[in-house]
From TrEMBL:
<dbReference type="GO" id="GO:0006487">
    <property type="term" value="P:protein N-linked glycosylation"/>
</dbReference>
<dbReference type="GO" id="GO:0005795">
    <property type="term" value="C:Golgi stack"/>
</dbReference>
<protein>
    <submittedName>
        <fullName>Si:ch73-91k6.2</fullName>
    </submittedName>
</protein>
<feature type="disulfide bond">
    <location>
        <begin position="306"/>
        <end position="406"/>
    </location>
</feature>
<keyword id="KW-0479">Metal-binding</keyword>
<dbReference type="InterPro" id="IPR029044">
    <property type="entry name" value="Nucleotide-diphossugar_trans"/>
</dbReference>
<dbReference type="GO" id="GO:0046872">
    <property type="term" value="F:metal ion binding"/>
</dbReference>
<feature type="disulfide bond">
    <location>
        <begin position="250"/>
        <end position="253"/>
    </location>
</feature>
<keyword id="KW-1015">Disulfide bond</keyword>
<feature type="disulfide bond">
    <location>
        <begin position="163"/>
        <end position="177"/>
    </location>
</feature>
<feature type="binding site">
    <location>
        <position position="228"/>
    </location>
    <ligand>
        <name>Mn(2+)</name>
    </ligand>
</feature>
<dbReference type="GO" id="GO:0008455">
    <property type="term" value="F:alpha-1,6-mannosylglycoprotein 2-beta-N-acetylglucosaminyltransferase activity"/>
</dbReference>
<feature type="binding site">
    <location>
        <begin position="196"/>
        <end position="200"/>
    </location>
    <ligand>
        <name>substrate</name>
    </ligand>
</feature>
<keyword id="KW-0464">Manganese</keyword>
<feature type="binding site">
    <location>
        <begin position="90"/>
        <end position="94"/>
    </location>
    <ligand>
        <name>substrate</name>
    </ligand>
</feature>
<dbReference type="InterPro" id="IPR007754">
    <property type="entry name" value="GlcNAc_II"/>
</dbReference>
<feature type="disulfide bond">
    <location>
        <begin position="301"/>
        <end position="324"/>
    </location>
</feature>
Amino acid sequence: MRFRLHKKNLLALLGVSFVVVTLLVSTRVLLVSDNDVIQGNPAVRPGDTVKFVFGSPAELARSVYNANYKQCVLNVDKFPGEPQLVLVVQVHNRPEYLRLLIRSLEKAAEVHSFLLIFSHDYFSEEINAIVQRITFCKVLQIYFPFSIQLYPAEFPGQDPQDCHRDMSKDSALKARCLNAEHPDSYGHYREAFITQTKHHWWWKLHFVWERVQAMQGYSGFVIFLEEDNYILPDFFHFYKSMIGFRKSSCPDCDMLALGNHNGLADFTKVSNKVLTAGWMSTKHNIGMAISREVYYKLMGCNVEFCTYDDYNWDWTLQHLSGGCISKPLKVLVAQGSRVLHTGDCGLHQKDKCRPEWASQKVEEGLQTARDSLFPPSLVLNGAEAVEHKAHMKNGGWGDVRDHSLCKNYAKL
């Protein structure tokens, strides 16, 4: 079931926290039971899928909760055994870029040993069909249960009674809009489509490590990708090389970055080179690999992550590194990027998206890079200072409802 609230009266009487608690309780009931997570769900058979009902938001929400409860892993009969690598892809609504990513995965060496987890915050028949046609490895789809698609006219979507982004606080207080008391650091009020990505990222981090049954017992790193990424054929080979290098030469490296934002420029010169550095959002947020140990460090900063006034998950993570996490996060970085960024549009740029151009550019780059793939060993090519990098927060995350909902993901 999905509770609907008369929010203006409720907020006046009981405050913001009850809205968040109600959302969480309704989701908890439909999402999962603790016994099923620990023991596995005997009602789910290999190859089962959840039929989505793309009707009203309430019907769609029930499909989402049912899918997150059943956790049907596709192709499990074809690829038995524990995964050698887990990749988690955050998916919104760019199906053409998603197809590019899947094509690159299909060409990756040893992909049959992967578990691909697709985490969705937009739900459509087209996107589900794209993912469910994958046959080359095990696949699990999880669904962000607080998507604005499920709450189109209420928090965590955009409530008609919310303050407009650019209202002054004085005007907002006079208008008595719902969040008048809580603009961000720059005087702006929340926009649901802006806040969703950070919510989804934090929920996904917790759900993957704590709730995904197929992850129970997995001791490796989880690599986080986005729908507009593209991986190179030697992705898994390079990951294993980085794991070995970390063990022998950088045991204090907290994270791995298999990608960078240089594309295939000078790839032949740096294909086998790595460097160490302090984690920075603008450099190390692509192909990021996190261990369970680092996950626990991050969750220890749950309150700080969820209340820091920046709508970007990666800038927020940089704020934690060397702050709430006292020792700055150290990352081992691939200089020859094994993850490319193909997207030429995104959160702030909706026009002129040309995935076919991205595909052509990648294919042309791979022709020159092909002979430099699968290097036999890695070479350390630099060691940058590992220190806290302060930055100007971007705002967009001042609403206490966002803070409360975000903090409670860890309690689901």
